[in-house]
Design goal:
With 380 residues, this protein is mainly beta. The protein has a domain of 179 residues. The chain has 2 helices and 31 strands. Strands 27-1-31-30-29 form a 5-stranded mixed sheet, with no helix packed on it.
Length: 380
């Protein structure tokens, strides 16, 4: 039951111009028997947007076609351009300068993704040297400037570069947290100024893992209890010059993290049997105490955080009883300015997805990409 204060706060929020905004489908890949699965999205400015993904033949007769999706006019027009490798993620420092991680390599662009140059990265000799990023371990990168950046990925891999990605050194602190590298991955990187976070998870194999996908055995999946996993976190307050590591046995795994000053938001996703599909936590680095700020029957897969504060949650309404049914559900997007009251925004009724990605330079210029070939734009 909401208190009178919460009801009043919700009424005041709905009366503000920002909460009159709505989400419109700006782009939809609509080709017969083909689906565009968007893997990542970047909008370094209000005009320039880049998405990467794979065009999948629903009948399975053709091999996947890998592609970028580009706009230079705020999403009014989009252009498809082929890629040679399966894309995993992208990071853009500005309108022109960006990096892409694929299954087998790194790529660099100085032309807003119109063309890409393959980088052959090398690891500098180190006693604790891990496999090279080109070996397929790396899943994400983040650059603090044109030369210095960080990479993370499978088997506890975290690396640093000071020459734009040509050579990399191992971040030794990444190996300090407990967890067998064979099932321990660093999955997300986020910076805001000098404050940086790299997070990961260690998930030992379970003997009760079903032989068939959970959606094919719903009764068994519903009985499969959510158990704590080991969440890993590396923190830096000096732009990545020095990292401190910590671990905590927490439910679920972090699917998104955003940093704003001393604040950060983290989305945890849970398995089929848990009471909620996901939960959003606010971390205040000054107090070190996490606080749960959103949990409901919507499956949140990404978030965005801006000064004000102003926060967004991108979520999907599960179409069935299980949280992870591989069937698209309706897209739901929520916003808040106080961490306490979350208001659902108007979303184009056509929008559906299994997972979502948020991107944009500020709170008034936001986009959401779906794994069903749609890109939504926040409009007045």
């Amino acid at each position: 039951m909401w208190s009178d204060q919460k009801i009043l706060a919700a009424i005041l929020l709905l009366a503000t111009p920002a909460f009159a905004q709505r989400w419109k489908v700006q782009y939809f890949f609509d080709e017969s028997r083909d689906t565009l699965v968007i893997e990542d999205l970047a909008f370094p400015s209000a005009e320039r947007g880049i998405a990467v993904g794979a065009i999948i033949d629903e009948l399975g007769k053709k091999a996947p076609r890998y592609t970028t999706l580009l706009t230079s006019d705020g999403g009014d027009h989009w252009t498809l351009s082929p890629l040679l490798d399966p894309p995993r993620s992208i990071f853009f420092l500005d309108d022109s300068t960006g990096w892409m991680v694929t299954d087998n390599a790194f790529w660099f662009t100085a032309e807003s993704g119109k063309s890409w140059k393959k980088i052959a990265p090398q690891i500098k000799p180190d006693k604790k040297m891990g496999p090279t990023p080109a070996g397929g371990l790396i899943t994400r990168v983040w650059f603090v400037d044109a030369h210095r950046g960080f990479a993370c990925g499978l088997q506890k891999a975290v690396y640093e570069t000071k020459d734009g990605g040509a050579t990399w050194t191992v971040v030794a602190e990444a190996a300090q947290p407990a967890g067998d590298p064979s099932h321990t991955n660093y999955t997300r990187i986020a910076f805001d100024g000098l404050n940086g976070v790299i997070v990961g998870v260690s998930t030992p194999p379970r003997h009760d893992d079903p032989a068939l996908p959970s959606w094919m055995e719903p009764e068994r999946a519903a009985r499969r209890k959510q158990v704590p996993t080991l969440t890993l976190m590396l923190e830096s307050r000096n732009g990545g010059e020095k990292w401190t590591s910590q671990t905590a046995p927490l439910m679920g795994a972090i699917s998104s993290i955003r940093v704003l000053g001393s604040d950060s938001l983290a989305v945890f996703e849970y398995n089929e049997s848990f009471r909620w599909p996901s939960e959003v936590f606010r971390f205040d680095t000054r107090s070190g105490v996490p606080a749960s700020i959103y949990r409901d029957q919507l499956r949140v897969s990404d978030c965005a955080l801006f000064p004000g504060p102003r926060a967004f949650l991108a979520a999907v309404e599960p179409p069935g009883k299980l949280n992870s049914v591989p069937i698209p559900g309706k897209v739901r997007i929520l916003t808040s300015t106080n961490w306490d009251v979350w208001t659902e925004m108007k979303v184009d009724y056509k929008a559906n997805a299994r997972s979502l990605i948020m991107a944009g330079p500020d709170a008034d210029h936001q986009w959401v990409a779906t794994d069903t070939g749609m890109i939504l734009h926040l409009i007045p």
